[in-house]
Amino acid sequence: MWIERKALAQEIPAAAALETRQLSELLASLGFPVDGVASREGGDVLDVDITANRGDAMSHRGMAREVAARLQQPLVPIAMPTLAEGKPVVEVRLESPACPVYSTAVLELGRGTTPLEVQSFLLALEATPKRLPAVDASNELLHRFGHPTHAFDADRIRGAVSVRWARPGETLVTLDGIERKLVEQDLVIADEAGPIALAGVMGGESTKVTEATTRVLLESAWFDPKPVKATARRHSLHTDASHRFGRGADPHMAMVARNLLAGRLQAWCQATLVGAWTAGAAPATAKPVPLTGTLLARIAGEPLALAEAAEALRRLGCATDLDVGILQITPPSWRHDLAIPEDLAEEVLRLRGYEHIPSVLPPLEGPPEPLSHAYLQRQRLARRLAHLGFQQTVTYGFISPEADAAFAAHGNGAEGRTLVNPLGQEYSVMRGSLLPSLQAVADQNLRQGAREVRLFELAPVYSSSPAGPVEQFLLGVVWGGTLGGEDYLSPARAVREADLSGIAKDLGWEGLSPLRSLGQGLFGFELPVESLPRMGARIIPAFSPFSRFPSVERDLSLLVDLGQSHEALTSAMRAALPKDALMDLRCVDVFRHKSLPEGRQAWLMRMRFQADRTLVGEEVDGWVAAALVAAGSLGATLRA
Asked: Which conformational region is residue 270 in: left (phi greater than 0), alpha (psi within -120 to 50 degrees), or beta?
């Protein structure tokens, strides 16, 4: 956020005596590092980094409060005109608890424009002045005092104004000219004709202030941060107003900001007040939070007097009451982040100065914990795939509902993995598969001209359960593109399923191939990490000495269906044969001819047996008969 030095000095005069470097170091010591300094409109402007929990600091007044607390110097009182409230000129209905207070006024505009010093102030903050007093005054107040306001063209409003949830099928053209389809979770400002603004986010095109506007209806309200943040994220509409309301504005500033806005219009363009009124009331102040000396000393690392803590917190605007060794602290209305005793203790240390916290090495108790077997297993898998030429990727754990539906396993519905407050629709589901993300990365690489892509990812996926999402680590592998072609002896060819099947076997996978075609010559698979050999397990079988006894071979000529899977047939036959005696089982010939029954083909299956003894014909014939029975369970018959 940009902070103009001249405007900051208007709020805290003591800041004017500091050089820019000194002021930057002071802000950094308070937890607000300065990312850069620019010279605009004849003065220095500081780019201050403000954390998401400090919405109160997103203004010159908020930053001045921090500087004043550290320097122990007073702030300049806010010069606020007093408006006599009376009967509403336009009825305002608060139909949602998300807006408890709505201060407003109607003014007749006269002649005049935005003062040059205000235009210069806005330009210094990279905000373009519109030279419309109602608009520029609202923007100036937002940056100066941190409370968003808005001005409607009062003559374009139809009937009463209400703050309510959007209704099914409603739309709104916002000030950026985009028509937005509203959902029932959107908080809107509406008149009798329909929505005229997204509450706390952006006004509507139909009631915007123009050069032809003669009467304005002012809005200065307080909105619950949660629906404002959700609406801004849902519509990808992040504005200065939504940033402040979404991080928590001061509800007691609603009437103050309304009066300041009306006062500026009266001063800048001789506006005449028609009426001022407030609907609802600001929420009750927070309850006192107790802080004990024991907790304060534990967090500080040394004993600190509660009286010293009370004095520091008072400088931040807190009300304090020290009673029988417990400090009761009531945070000010603009500090929503002070909710528990630990928050208050941290504020005392921050204002006291982090350099005063003693440096102490943490105690070392015992040897370090060994690395988990699961971590070592993932590390081994990653290293092996890297040796095979694959590149490890890291993708988002959240995907869109559409991408999830294309790969979701049966019984793993997205409703059990959908986020309540997502970053956006495209990141609203906790993924149940790694393949959508890997496919997207592979497709992008192929579009950029890559001849071949070899990607893998080791990451958690989630399955729905009554108790919530259940995490499981998977290995996802994707391979596609063109192999070879570099010279005459290695002709180019497309990646085939068998290539990736070999990778699964290399990693120790046993059973049917888990391959999946991803389109455009891409193939992939994903496996539970826990189903692969653990760290230390041997993937290469242990050496067995060669037998001194001769081996025995037997052939079976089988008639099988044209669509018969070789893997399924060999698996069934192997299961029926003795593991210690079966040395090899393979198909050595395939015969297809019109002389064979329609839809059938002949496979010559060769079995080789060997043991540490002489095998006799009767037992080998029994094994062959068992293999024939197993093949028959898949529809294979002995060829005549």
From this structure: left
